[in-house]
Amino acid sequence: MTPLFQGKIDNFCAAYAVLNALRLIHGISDFQARSLFSALLLRQSRDEKMFRAILEHTTDYQELVDDFFRQAGEYFPLRVKAPFGEDTGCDEVWEALRDYACPERGRSAVFRFRRYEAFRVRPCADHWTTGHKMEG
């Protein structure tokens, strides 16, 4: 048996990335994370079309991430910055991630990565995560 893991069937990796960033920089508890996550789901579910896109993985989750950061900003001091766009070169992306993945300075990197295989239109991997530290 291959066990299921977070994100395999629920498509909420973007929300978990935000929660993990909050845990890194603000030390939120499991209870706080659950409360924030529940409030996010309730708010998102009010727009059935958007919520269905989340559940069916037909969105890039950017609106969900932005909404979650806005919500968290009501409880925790946050400064959210998008240092690069989707056409930015790999070297610049890695440099930005090295700079932002630094919880000792109260910073973390939340980002989406997609991996493509030759001759495929859709990515074989599409995942949001949190950068803790960059080494090497």
List the helices and strands and how they pair.
Layout (H helix, E strand, L loop, with lengths): L12 H14 L3 H16 L2 H8 L6 H12 L16 H11 L8 E7 L9 E7 L5
Antiparallel strand pairs: 1-2
Structure description:
By secondary structure, the protein is mainly α. The chain is 45% helix and 10% strand. It has 5 helices and 2 strands. A two-stranded antiparallel ribbon has the order 1-2. Helix 1 (13-26) packs parallel to helix 4 (62-73). The longest helix has 16 residues, at 30-45. The protein is globular and about 40 Å long. The mean pLDDT is 88.
Radius of gyration: 16 Å
Strand proportion, as a percent range, falls in: 5-15%
Structural class: mainly alpha
Within the largest sheet, what's the order of strands? 1-2
Large-scale geometry? globular
Largest sheet: 2 strands, antiparallel
Query: Could you spell the SSE succession in H and E letters?
Result: HHHHHEE
Number of helical stretches of at least 4 residues: 5
- State the share of residues found in helices, binned by percent: 40-55%
Q: Which regions have little confidence, pLDDT < 50, spanning 5+ residues?
A: none
In whole angstroms, the N-to-C terminal distance is 35 Å
How many strands in all?
A: 2
What's the overall average pLDDT, rounded?
A: 88
